[in-house]
Design a protein that fits this description.
The structure is a single chain. This protein is 60% helix and 11% strand. The protein has helices at 6-22, 28-44, 52-59, 65-74, 90-94, 98-104, 126-136, 147-163, 165-183; strands at 79-80, 106-112, 115-120, 140-144. The protein has a four-stranded mixed beta sheet. The radius of gyration is 18 Å and the shape is globular. It starts with 5 loop residues before the first helix and ends with a helix.
């Protein structure tokens, strides 16, 4: 995770944790313990690991992701989407800010007229909603999804970029620059 997205990552996770407590989905004591683990994980720099929700759900097992998705549907009125089964249009994939997606655990996945469709595991975090509302500049239809669905989509997206002509060209340029430096 680049330093550019660290403030967004920290704010998104901090505010998600507060909302999980406020909505009685986790206890404050569990959140405090998860925050300690989260700081350690952020230092590792692995985007897939940097999630307070993952720590609470998978490591500590104090909240179930299904319970949170149920809350999003019942209390917040969101729909659900599985990004693994959705074909994102090329223009949206090409313009995707992957760093912001990892920092907010959210992915813009479609656009219909002026409405953006955004899948997120972090809807309860006001920082996430604010970021995407400003970044996309239009009304958003939010959809809940799982951490795994977001992570798998972003990892596949990165793989597709690396395998594309642009990715191969960038890799070739990097190798050429390395060879030029070594030869000098």
């Amino acid at each position: 995770m680049s330093k550019e997205y660290r403030p967004l990552l920290m704010r998104a996770n901090r505010l998600l944790g507060a909302q999980l407590v406020e909505h009685n989905l986790v206890k404050i004591e569990d959140l405090e313990q998860a925050n300690e683990k989260f700081i350690e994980v952020v230092a590792s720099g692995l985007p897939r690991q940097t999630s307070i929700l993952a720590i609470l759900a998978y490591d500590m097992k104090v909240v179930q992701e299904d319970a949170m998705l149920h809350h999003l549907v019942e209390a917040e009125g969101l729909g659900l989407v599985d990004m693994r089964d959705y074909d994102v249009p090329d223009d949206i994939r090409k313009g995707m800010d992957v760093g912001a997606c990892w920092a907010t655990w959210s992915v813009p996945f479609d656009r219909e007229e002026e409405f953006w469709f955004v899948a997120t595991a972090y809807y309860l975090s006001p920082a996430v909603r604010n970021h995407w509302e400003k970044a996309l500049g239009g009304p958003i239809l939010w959809f809940g999804t799982t951490l795994d669905a977001i992570a798998e989509y972003l990892e596949k997206h990165a793989e597709d970029v690396a395998n594309s002509g642009a990715g191969k060209a960038a890799a070739a340029a990097a190798v050429a620059a390395t060879v030029k430096i070594a030869a000098a």
